[in-house]
Amino acid sequence: MESRTIAQTKTYTYVICALFAALSAVGAFIKIPMPLVPFTLQFLFTALSGVLLGSKRGMLAQMLYVGIGLAGIPIFTKGGGISYVFQPTFGYLVGFIIGAYIIGKIVEQKGASFKVIFMASFIGVIAIYIFGVIYMYFIVNLYIGSPMPLSKAIYVGAIACLPGDLISCFITSLVGSKLVPILKKQQLI
């Protein structure tokens, strides 16, 4: 495959980042009922954006997703708009940006084996939980004014979500370990 021009590279970056932003938006609305917290595909697409696009473009895709939602397009699970920053779950959206970067960086540095991608995805989901749980704790306690102990925030915001997110880590590892070599061979990443 011949090398691309700078304009082609920029266009390709815009298109794939927009694609993964759209997948993240769609993933917010695909809900699989679970005993405590519904399982969505948002983390799956966040992790795949880091694995398949790399740290910078994966982060850019998630920034685009969050930016579109904050601009007022109702693509978050409970709508959109700048006031969404006062939703208890907004910290997870910030976490998606950081998580995609972390996942992409680990895969860039360590390779795209199933084991590396699973580890990277798990580290990424922990980073998302850190942002999400801390943000939820402060918004609920300080802005909403409804007392919530940190232990409950950790349980509801991380522990209850972990089984579904581990499934996403597995799927990401399976898909990523197969697609990354193909995409590299085609010089698409």
Question: Can you tell me about this structure?
Answer:
The protein has helices spanning about 5-30, 40-55, 55-70, 90-110, 115-145, 150-160, 160-185; strands at about 30, 40. It has about 190 residues and is mostly helical. It has one domain: Arp2/3 complex 21 kDa subunit ARPC3. Strands 1-2 form a two-stranded antiparallel sheet. Strand 1 and strand 2 (about 40) form a beta hairpin. Helix 1 (about 5-30) runs antiparallel to helix 2 (about 40-55) and helix 5 (about 115-145) runs antiparallel to helix 6.
Task: Give the SSE layout.
Blueprint: H1 6-29, E1 31-32, E2 39-40, H2 42-53, H3 55-70, H4 90-110, H5 114-144, H6 150-159, H7 162-185
Which tags fit this structure?
globular, 7 helices, mainly alpha, Arp2/3 complex 21 kDa subunit ARPC3, two-stranded antiparallel sheet, single chain, about 190 residues
Describe, in short, the structure shown.
It contains seven helices and two strands. With 189 residues, it is mostly helical. The protein has a two-stranded antiparallel sheet with strand order 1-2.
State the distance separating the first and last CA atoms: 13 Å
Structural class by SSE content:
mainly alpha
- SSE order, as H and E? HEEHHHHHH
**Uncertain stretches:** none
Overall shape: it is globular
- What's the architecture, going by CATH? Orthogonal Bundle
Number of distinct helices = 7
Find the CATH topology: Arp2/3 complex 21 kDa subunit ARPC3
